[in-house]
Specification:
The protein has a 16-stranded parallel beta sheet that branches. The chain has a 4-stranded parallel beta sheet with strand order 9-11-13-16, with no helix packed on it. The radius of gyration is 16 Å and the shape is globular. The protein contains no helices and 22 strands. By secondary structure, it is mainly beta. The chain starts with a strand and ends with a strand. The mean pLDDT is 96.
């Protein structure tokens, strides 16, 4: 595929399974308020690809709205999401809005996430930009997770104007930004609100 941009005019687009975004493909709406991709089921994705020279497998069998896919032992490159709301129709405890297990040079810009347990989830991303993204009604806003190799989860990332509005009437907050081994990265004007849990347990802005 030579890639390109898929444009969504204002409206609500209901999906029942994750949307897959390969390298060189961008999704763009008119605005994050009125252009909505809403997943109405808890259906998981399918398939997997290897990483770290074949020593780790990234499974796509997760309840996601969008999945950035990569080839075996490669990364998703030069893809992005802009001016869209990504949501579950109702909150689901194991759901993810944007799953990008391996990516570089991707851009997330002016995106609103709603009713997903994790807003952005990756194992290994670098040299990418996440800007003007709000994650609302979640457990974790943005996560760089250990893939089991213990080798770190990326470098040279920029998070700018990223906000987590936990909305604890829907979900129990845990961490706004959860980063394992992320290096040489910037968080500019980022923050979180409404992180008080009903059970009184601790909530972390940066973990």
């Amino acid at each position: 595929s030579l890639g390109g941009t898929v444009y969504f005019p204002t409206g609500t687009y209901k999906i029942t399974a994750p949307l897959y975004v390969p390298s060189l493909v961008n999704l763009e709406g008119e605005n994050a308020w009125g252009t909505i991709i809403s997943k109405t089921t808890n259906t998981a994705g399918t398939g997997s690809n290897t990483a770290r020279s074949g020593t780790v497998t990234d499974s796509y069998a997760l309840d996601c709205v969008l999945i950035f896919t990569h080839a075996n032992n490669e990364y998703t490159v030069y893809s992005g999401v802009k001016n869209l709301r990504l949501q579950k129709a109702s909150f689901a405890l194991s759901s993810i809005a944007i799953y990008a297990p391996r990516s570089n040079h991707i851009q997330i810009d002016n995106v609103w996430v709603l009713n997903c347990a994790i807003g952005w989830y990756t194992f290994d991303s670098w040299m990418s930009s996440i800007k003007d993204m709000t994650v609302q009604a979640c457990n974790i806003g943005y996560q760089h997770a250990n893939d089991g190799a213990g080798l770190g989860t990326g470098t040279s990332m920029t998070y700018q104007n990223c906000w987590v509005n936990f909305d604890n009437t829907i979900a129990e907050p845990t961490q706004a930004f959860n980063f394992f081994g992320l290096t040489y990265s910037n968080l500019i004007s980022c923050g979180s609100d409404n992180g008080t849990r009903v059970d009184g347990a601790a909530t972390y802005a940066y973990y």
